[in-house]
Predict the structure.
Amino acid sequence: MSANAVIYVVDDDDNVRHLLATMFRASEYRVKEFGFGADFLSTYDGRGLGCILMDIVMPGVNGLDVLDELTR
């Protein structure tokens, strides 16, 4: 992955989110963490390289809602 690429970890479970982020950072990836789908959508601009690792079942805006919004 490019040096400018980011792995976005979106999960409402703090332990899961922090564990995944820690593992990726240990492998020298850039990581941004979000506890809720709405928080991710409020900051994500769709530019740049990266990937999104997201929980599907979250309160409020769930993973499928985020996917729908991203495809618009």
Q: What stands out?
A: The CA atoms of residues 66 and 72 lie 10 Å apart.
